[in-house]
Amino acid sequence: MKIGHLVKMTGVPKQTIHFYMREGLLRKPRKSGVNNAEYTQAHLDQLLLIKDLRDNFFLPIPEIKKILKNRKSQSPLDQAMVDRRAKYFRPMDQLVNIEIRGRERFIKASGMSPKWLAKMEEWGVVSPKKEGEELVYSHDDLNIARLISDMDDLGFGPQHGYDPQDLKIVADFVRDFIMSNDNRYMAANLEKFSNPEHTEECREFIEVMSLFFYHTYRKQVREKYFMLTKKQEEPSQEPTSS
């Protein structure tokens, strides 16, 4: 593609693209003539990644260089997993309290079908609050719905044999755990939780526990996946004849 098409596809100005090439963030294109240069899909992907790191993570050029260098040593699978995590852990999303008002707007933003949104609301996986006659969805609701849509795209939907009701079981388990264990802790520290001076500590505790759940589940699933794949790769033991 020509640089004009690259600009149109990414929204990055031509001067900025040339700057990235001078800084070594983007490799130079193949020349097809004195004033012609051909850019590839690799240029597009790299430029979109740089744009994402600049716009959503506010990283300076030296840090982006380190990330791009380390990325070269990653497998395509590892790169895809990093990209997916980055999609849901952007600093701006954490700083801005995003709420979506109305079911139709939520469906459009999340990509979830009306049928499955109704089911997830019934199961308490997505739980909007009601203000007057309007449903208000939190940023967590949005991310959960997007993740469920991602699962379907990856081949873990009802048509692939995955039972969506398992998500209800997970949501119920987490809810029951919080109602029992966290309730005991909060009751024992009621003065701290009701004191405005400790608001910051309490909110940090919530974030720490949220990250603990995330990393614990991720660790256990990765270990289980490793065990299953290792078992699959092991040669079958044929019985020896006497």
What does this structure look like?
There is one protein chain. The chain is mainly α and 242 residues long. It contains twelve helices and five strands. The strands form two sheets. Strands 3-5-4 form a three-stranded antiparallel β-sheet. Strands 1-2 form a two-stranded antiparallel ribbon. 10% of the residues are buried. The model has no long low-confidence stretch (mean pLDDT 85).
So how many helices?
12
Number of strands: 5
Give the terminus-to-terminus CA distance: 67 Å
Fraction of residues in H or I helices? 55-70%
**Any low-confidence stretches, pLDDT <50, length ≥5?**
none
Shape: globular
Rounded mean pLDDT score: 85
Q: What fraction strand?
A: 5-15%
Short description:
The protein is built from twelve helices and five strands. Strand 4 and strand 5 form a beta hairpin.
What is the fold's blueprint, element by element?
Layout: H1 3-10, H2 14-23, E1 30-31, E2 37-38, H3 41-57, H4 61-72, H5 76-88, H6 91-95, E3 100-101, H7 103-110, H8 114-123, E4 129-131, E5 134-137, H9 139-153, H10 165-188, H11 190-194, H12 199-233
Antiparallel strand pairs: 1-2, 3-5, 4-5
